[in-house]
């Protein structure tokens, strides 16, 4: 997904727009011939957009989408266009600064912040390299992002709210059980819509055949991720009761027991306030990466002990660092043991007993 030039940051493609006006009205030009993209530092060309690379959104409104940049850069985009057929070309150019996102932006959607991790789980450690330079922020950000993503996958939870659209099969027996659905993500905050959608119509597009009223959507236990469709007063008139107590709209004839990818469900899932035990688990995992690196640099990369002797005086420093053991091995082992105890408890609490009948 691209961002507007006013929000340009590294790591995201950028939508560069050209809007032409004349006396306040959109200028309906004949064509945009090309768009040249330069590095403002030395005006070296980065890319030239032509033909299908240039999209017209509206009268006088065109845009191109750049690739994502991995470093801060100032761009110059030069547009060459022709106002009418048979006339000469005109040019206009713009400058766009692509900035590195702030720490807060890079940690958006994560379970904890960088200062929280340092204060509560890395307190008392020397978080600098051999020359005394502080560890880069990116090291902590990457550790937090990894730990958050890992725990979300491990527990099938969304730690921060996100809006998701997913498809589910039509299974006759589940449809008869008040339209039962087990959603992929939890805990549920809101089910925005439930639609029955034929994946492809005669035109090749999906086609909505039923939009279920929001008053029918029931979420008994948000943490379970389960949704049911329960007709109520005012909605019963839209449905008919058939064989086998089918009270929901008849989608397929009785002989059809299933239909793939028929239901499209849009919902918001995630914790509005992340529980402390989940924050604790994320921090334990994130700290392991930092401790591994910091432990190797206690007295220098790859050094287990160091001695200094001057004028008959000597000093020796020995660490627990070795070829097979980290300098902060004791804390790493402690955090690993805490994770080993905590994870099964979290799985039982958020998922309960899972049973499969064969």
Protein architecture, described:
The structure is a single chain. This protein is of the alpha+beta class. It is 22% helix and 32% strand. The chain is built from six helices and 19 strands. Helix 5 (276-296) runs antiparallel to helix 6 (329-351). The model is unreliable at 240-248 (pLDDT under 50).
Mean pLDDT: 82
The fraction of residues in strands falls at 25-35%
- The percent of residues in helical segments reads 10-25%
- Quantity of strands, as a count: 19
Regarding quaternary structure, how should these chains be classified? single chain
What is the approximate shape? Answer: flat
Per DSSP, the total helix count is 6
In the residues, how many domains can be counted? 3
How are the strands of the largest sheet arranged? 1-2-8-7
Unreliable segments of 5+ consecutive residues:
240-248
Instruction: Report the end-to-end length measured between terminal Cα atoms.
Output: 43 Å
Instruction: Label the structural class.
Output: alpha+beta
SSE order: EEEEEEEEEEHHHEHEEEEEEHEEH
**Biggest sheet statistics:** 4 strands, mixed
Overall radius of gyration: 29 Å
